[in-house]
Amino acid sequence: MRAMVYRGPYKVRVEDKDIPAIEHPNDAVVRVTLGAICGSDLHLYHGMMPDTRIGHTFGHEFIGVVHAVGSSVQNLNVGDRVMVPFNIFCGSCWFCARGLYSNCHNVNPNASAIGGIYGYSHTCGGYDGGQAEFVRVPFADVGPALIPDWMSDEDAVLLTDACPTGYFGAQLGEITEGDVVVVFGAGPVGLFAAKSAWLMGAGRVLVVDHLDYRLEKARTFAHAETFNFTEHDDIVLEMKKQTDFLGADVAIDAVGAEADGNLLMHVTSAKLKLQGGSPVALNWAIDAVRKGGTVSVVGAYGPLFSAVKFGDAMNKGLTIRANQCPVKRQWPRLFEHVKNGYLTPSDIVTHRFPLEDIAEGYHVFSAKLDGIIKPLVVPSAA
Question: What pLDDT score does 278 carry?
């Protein structure tokens, strides 16, 4: 099969690999029909995540058709059209029993915090991902779900990570009716977080970014007020001015490890790898939210230290809620929102790259060229 492989920071290419085999009776092998490049894939591409090994195949957003199943799989059959959450989870451990699928205790021997993630380095279990023609899917009875007949492929692939993660970010904010919500980052997750905030009763939604074309999408897709932080001497002060100098009720960090806005922080994290991620967006969230407010963190950070202003958070009495999204827990309600027309995830798709051109896709997405917001990957095997 053809698969994307990592060859070092900023170096990816497509090579031949063996089609994955059934390694356990609970496995399935899925022929990928549609994948995507996620903003958090760029952290890998830029060399931000430890233990990203040469030859690893990225891709944690994908859908496909079941190609083979292990002898113990009961819920899937060859030929089924399935969507696969980015979390790999057993479904039966202490954490899975409580819906914390992203913290499964049985799928990642390399970490005590996060569970398994497709295509996201050996820090997250070392599982090859779906930017390939085929992918092995462990615990096939508990992860994948059949794609409803009424759902399009492009909506389905965005429901494997970006849309649920944005929705989860708004959910973690515990938004109540009339709340002012500020979202840092107008990438796919930030756009979905802003859109979801309205569904949860927000009275105002403000989005902060530095790319005008992404802010335009935040206005048209998420109906948010937008602010380009490069046009303000102090974006936190501007957020205070916008909220009668109280601060927002909820702030959502949808940026994570490679936030711009502070050159020193960006260089020490993204370039020198001295931090687990640039904490600029998180620190802005801590400063921009009101005393007693809530900060939601769904932007991805690495396991190393980051210079977060925790003293300010403590003294302001903030609630900080964070996690990788447990995708499958969000699906029942998101399916209803999509079916009823409240959400059309595919509205944010801007580019579609053949798998063979994935190096170009990563370059365009990394450099933010051609108005790119969300790129999909189309394997030739489809």
Answer: 72
Query: In the chain, how long is the greatest CA-to-CA distance?
Result: 62
Strands (E), the chain: 2-6, 12-16, 28-36, 62-69, 81-84, 87-88, 116-117, 134-137, 145-146, 180-184, 204-209, 225-228, 248-253, 289-297, 319-322, 351-354, 375-378
How many CB atoms within 10 Å of residue 221?
17
Please state, in angstroms and as integers, the Cα–Cα distance from residue 167 to each residue in 116, 173, 297, following that order: 21, 10, 12
**Which fold is adopted by the domain 162-322?**
Rossmann fold (3.40.50)
Residue 365 has which token pair?
């997405």
Strand arrangement, sheet containing 319-322: 225-228, 204-209, 180-184, 248-253, 289-297, 319-322
- The pair of structure tokens assigned to 332 is 């029942």
**CA 124 – CA 305 distance, rounded (Å):** 18
Check whether domain 2-161+326-378 has CATH 2.30.42.10, yes or no: no
Q: How far is CA 324 from the centre of its chain?
A: 8
Task: List the chain domain ranges.
Answer: 2-161+326-378, 162-322
Of 4, 35, 42, 8, nearest to 365 (Cα)?
42
What are residue 152's phi and psi, to 5 degrees? Answer: -75, 160
Torsion angle defined by CA atoms of residues 83, 87, 91 and 96, in that order, rounded to the nearest 10 degrees: -140
Q: For 98-140, what is each residue's pLDDT tens digit?
A: 999 999 999 998 777 789 999 999 999 999 999 999 999 999 9
Residue 116, strand partner residues: 88
| Best CA proximity match to 284, nearest among 187, 191, 183 | 183
Task: Name the pTM for this structure.
Answer: 0.94
Q: Identify the CA nearest to 382 among candidates 340, 348, 353, 361.
A: 353
